[in-house]
Amino acid sequence: MAGQKPKNPEVHATYLPKDKKSTKPFHDTPMLDQLVDGPWPSFVTGLKRLAHDNNMSVDLLGQLEHSYKTRIGYWKGGTVSVFGYGGGIIPRFTELMGDDGKPMFPESKEFHTLRVQPPAGNHYSTKMLRKLSDSWNKYGSGLIAFHGQTGNIMFIGTTTEKTQHFFDEINEYGWDLGGAGPCVRTGMSCVGAARCEQSCTNEMKVHRSLVNNFLDDMHRPALPYKFKFKVSGCPNDCMNSIQRSDFAVIGTWRDDMQVDQEEVKKIVAEKGRKNIIDNVVSRCPTNALSLNDDNTLDVDNRNCVRCMHCINVMTKALSPGKDKGVTVLLGGKRTLKIGDTMGTVIVPFMKLETDEDYEKLTGLAEETIDFWAENALEHERVGETIDRIGLVNFLEGVGIDPDPHMINHPRTSNYVRLDDWDAEAEKWKNRKAAN
Ligand code: SF4
Predict the structure, then answer these.
(1) Minimal-distance CA residue to ligand 1 atom 1
(2) Which ligand 1 atom is nearest residue 283's CA?
């Protein structure tokens, strides 16, 4: 920004240790150095700090500077694995060779990344983080990303030989590799009930049940393409599971929202009626809220679409209902063959309390993965399979009855075309009554 005094060089300097333990001299990095001149934190500061510790990071900076100069990336893939696993490691070998045919930056000629599954809800203890860092300092470059786009802890930069040693060590105290390639990928769940009052389900248990059930499919890639589970505890969907996962589990409720009228009155007294009408009542997407003359709030629960806006704004006064469960959606993903897709509701509501409930959920995931694995084209996500063969055929394949709640947009159009509507509606009512 014009006139803004760069602060980062001073910060950069304070982060660099005085002692240099690495034995290789630093490479000149004039282009990378420009990145620490701006007012923003730069990853170069972190890399330079690591370069004081080990030769691998010294050479990594050398190769990176060379890439910046030539505007070419010099990493190629390959095959690196640990015993018994077919995935979880992203191999990187340098392509940058000198005139003598040897690597120009030999210390970082192998720079593989290990994807390690995070704990459900990303709950770590400081002790455990230190332990992981110590192991990585022993066997790798020291560079760690919490967390990559995939949700994994990314341990970036080690050699083929040390990959196995590092894995053995962290596996010994409880960590496992995540997914990479055409397989069930590392699951993700929000922080959940431990720190959030909106939680409507046991996110950790859902996450663990799904991942533990599909560990084989995670470690030995044999599916048409990737398959991701994400779990959000409430319709705020902090995990972006609707957009970013093939199988989204989102906590919700089916009875009336809980309203503490005394708290409503207090908030209205504090902020004023106009404020509440402007910022809460009139922002309800379905006009389901009305503020009465005595400053109490009425909620038309039949028309509430669980957008969470009013609950987020009036946290003390409003909260999810008591009859809690989850909604399951299939087929969200970023751009591929048919562009970005959002998840489709395939189970509008299911209770998740007993072991049988959890078995039902993992059973549904199994049916889905089996049907998709058998019927998908190469490199096709489940959302694309549904798009190609039609939702009705897909539902038949996984053994789910069509439900009028499977909708494209709230209260507009059904995904499922029910030509003989009356007869189908009758069947649906009977099914509901039987449950
Ligand atoms: Fe309206 Fe959203 Fe509140 Fe439901 S959660 S009442 S849809 S603002």
Answers:
(1) 284
(2) 8
Contact indicator for 277, 261 with CB cutoff of 8 Å: no
**273-283, pLDDT tens digit by residue?**
999 999 999 99
Tell me: pLDDT of 416 over 70. no
Strand partners, 251: 326
Q: Where are the domains of the chain?
A: 9-70, 76-172, 188-254+324-398, 258-319
Residue 182: pLDDT over 60: yes
Tell me the CA–centroid distance for residue 284 and ligand 1, in Å. Answer: 5
The residue contributing the CA closest to ligand 1 atom 8 is 284
The pLDDT confidence band at residue 164, using thresholds 50, 70 and 90, is very high
Q: Which of 188, 201, 281 shows the shortest CA–CA distance to 229?
A: 188
- Evaluate whether 76-172 and 188-254+324-398 have a shared fold: no
CATH code of domain 258-319: 3.30.70.20
The class that CATH gives domain 188-254+324-398 is alpha beta
Q: Is 240 left (phi over 0), alpha (psi -120 to 50) or beta?
A: left
